[in-house]
C-alpha cells in the first residue's frame, strides 16, 4: 500500500495525525465555491478614464480633448 501522508520533521502523535487526516478529508469532500459573477463593464469606474492616444495625423489635437 502506498503512503499518502508522511511526517518528515517532528514527532506527531496518532491523535494529531488523525485530526489532520479528518481536516483534509472534510476539505476534499466540501463542494467547490461557486465562481463570483463578472462585474458589468458599465459599472466599472475605469470606463470613464481616458483611453490611450493613437499615433496618427491629428493625434496632437486629440491630446487636448478630455
Written account of the structure:
The protein has 2 helices and no strands. The protein is mainly α. 30% of the residues lie in helices and 0% in strands. The protein has helices spanning 14-29, 59-62. The longest helix is centred in the first third of the chain and has 16 residues, at 14-29.
Observed structural traits:
single chain; elongated
Q: State the end-to-end distance.
A: 70 Å
Please report the total strand number as a whole number. Answer: 0
Number of helices: 2
Rough shape? elongated
Mean pLDDT across the residues is 79
Strand/helix succession: HH
Helix coverage percent = 25-40%
Q: Give the amount of beta strand, in percent.
A: under 5%
Which value, in Å, is the CA radius of gyration? 28 Å
- Overall SS class: mainly alpha
Largest sheet: none
List unreliable stretches of 5+ residues: none
InterPro entries: ACC_epsilon
Pfam families: ACC_epsilon (PF13822)
Region (Disordered): 28-66
Protein name: Acyl-CoA carboxylase epsilon subunit
Topology:
Elements: H1 14-29, H2 59-62
Pfam family, one: ACC_epsilon
Organism: Nonomuraea typhae
InterPro entries: ACC_epsilon (IPR032716)
Q: How would you briefly describe this protein structure?
A:
With 66 residues, this protein is mostly helical. Helix content is 30%, strand content 0%. 0% of the residues are buried.
Amino acid at each position: 500500500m502506498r503512503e499518502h501522508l508522511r511526517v518528515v520533521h517532528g514527532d506527531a502523535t496518532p491523535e494529531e495525525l488523525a485530526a489532520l487526516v479528518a481536516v483534509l478529508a472534510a476539505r476534499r469532500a466540501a463542494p467547490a465555491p461557486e465562481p463570483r459573477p463578472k462585474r458589468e463593464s458599465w459599472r466599472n469606474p475605469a470606463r470613464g478614464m481616458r483611453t490611450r492616444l493613437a499615433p496618427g495625423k491629428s493625434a496632437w489635437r486629440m491630446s487636448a480633448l478630455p
